[in-house]
């Protein structure tokens, strides 16, 4: 488990106010209560299997209530895999939808005290590596995978540091909206980078560069941006392109990953846009923000508002074309 010294430096700054609604399953409710009451000294394994568990606290997507579950402890270098296996059932568990809808207001308890984390779903090679670790901890995951037609989602929870600074943060900004359109329709609009100006209040458009001129992993494009009289361009690389599921790209100049996730919700889609640093923000980007965009904090606030505006524009386009 994580050492006490490290826990002391982690953040507990999350918004998990509101009523707590325990699980309807008695054994889950009792395990969570005992684990929290004893600081993890008791009820810290999957029943009598001896396999350690962690407690994950989140907000319910529909109810807004605080929900808690016990999940297998799959830890690697301070991060945790949250495997949405549901015993190999044909659908994803409810807690998976909760975390996708609000990946920031989440806490994990792995020992005496809980700490704040940010959650992201992993794909490709990264998912494969985490899946291997998960199966090593709990081999039955392989049996669950064999009995279901769905790809079992793997989310990774990263501890959030308590003190801010000039470096990278573990806390991604995230905004979600429900759109009355299919995931495929929403994805098609977002992945058309040449028409980015239809969505973003700051980006006026995009253009492919290099030989690849379609939204696939590794393709690059230039984004053209405007804020008042200031004009600038960014070079971006697509890192995830899963039609109807997820689209993500990284902006080189600001070392930022922009990600769109598309989650079916009946006849509609929950679309989540998030932004997070992939490394410390480069000095030129900090200087540019400070002197031309009104300051780093001010521009970050504008970007958060911009994500909300982007999803509202996406809603208008997707619903009008459905």
Show the helix and strand layout.
Blueprint: H1 4-9, H2 26-37, E1 53-59, E2 66-72, E3 74-76, E4 79-83, H3 94-101, E5 106-109, E6 114-121, H4 124-137, H5 140-146, E7 154-159, E8 173-179, H6 183-191, E9 203-209, E10 220-227, E11 230-242, E12 246-251, E13 256-265, E14 268-277, H7 283-292, H8 296-321
Antiparallel strand pairs: 1-2, 1-5, 3-4, 4-7, 5-6, 6-7, 8-14, 9-10, 10-11, 11-12, 12-13, 13-14
Helix pairs in contact: 6-8
Structure description:
The chain has 322 residues and is an alpha+beta fold. The chain has helices at residues 4-9, 26-37, 94-101, 124-137, 140-146, 183-191, 283-292, 296-321; strands at residues 53-59, 66-72, 74-76, 79-83, 106-109, 114-121, 154-159, 173-179, 203-209, 220-227, 230-242, 246-251, 256-265, 268-277.
Summary of the model, kept short:
The chain is an alpha+beta fold and 322 residues long. It has helices at 4-9, 26-37, 94-101, 124-137, 140-146, 183-191, 283-292, 296-321; strands spanning 53-59, 66-72, 74-76, 79-83, 106-109, 114-121, 154-159, 173-179, 203-209, 220-227, 230-242, 246-251, 256-265, 268-277.
Shape type: elongated
* Helix share bin: 25-40%
Kindly provide the name of the CATH class of the largest domain: Mainly Beta
- Taken as a percent bin, the fraction of beta residues is 25-35%
Number of strands: 14
Q: What is the total domain count?
A: 2
CATH architectural type of the largest domain: Roll
Quote the distance from N terminus to C terminus: 49 Å
